[in-house]
Amino acid sequence: MANHVFNTVRTQDNTAAMPDAIPLHDTETHADTDMQAHRHDRLEGRTIAILATNGVEEVELTEPVAALRNAGAQTVLVSPTHGYIQAMEGDIHPTHRYQVDLLVSQAHARNFDGLVLPGGTTSPDHLRMDDDAVRFVREFVQADKPIAAICHGPWTLINANGVRGHRITSWPSLRADLTNAGAHWVDEEVVTDGTLVTSRNPHDLKAFCPAIVALFATVHHHAPQ
């Protein structure tokens, strides 16, 4: 895996990103502002996959990436979509387009130290119906690699058989889905259960971002760079 942050890996057919697409490392977020004076290297050498597609909730994409980057991690935007993905605010308002680094059909958990599943309603709904996306998430589950999911992100985990027996939170409408899949659902801002961290919504990002850095810092064997 290339030792760079976003926009480092061409898609298989060399599809170029759209001219108005933004590499995630070029965005400025609240996490950047809050953490600029507190940069550290807890995640140095680690490579984290961010799995998302069109309709992803923008702050649930950009804020975790900023927190991971400030902690020294490399991040790779993985998607079934070629070129770029359209982010949203509240599922309704289009915001920015972000360049995809790697098609999920080419991606394997063995090349990463952890996985982040942002929310928004549309992105996780598409991902859980995509065979390659579900296979990619399942590889993390089977390898017991750390996974962080927020809002509707756990939807894809259900299809990857990754929630049974876990204490987990999410957007409230997923409660029945997660319970039926064998999870113990709770209404808390952030829940850490083994190699899984979950949160409910964008308001929980201030708790979610430090929790995912702490989770990924527990990884001892780094993925190949």
TrEMBL record:
PROSITE patterns: PEPTIDASE_C56_PFPI (PS51276)
Start and end residues of each DJ-1/PfpI domain: 47-214
GO terms, biological process: proteolysis
Organism: Komagataeibacter diospyri
Family membership: Belongs to the peptidase C56 family.
Pfam families: DJ-1_PfpI
CDD domains associated with the record: GATase1_PfpI_like (cd03134)
Name by which UniProt lists this protein: Protease I
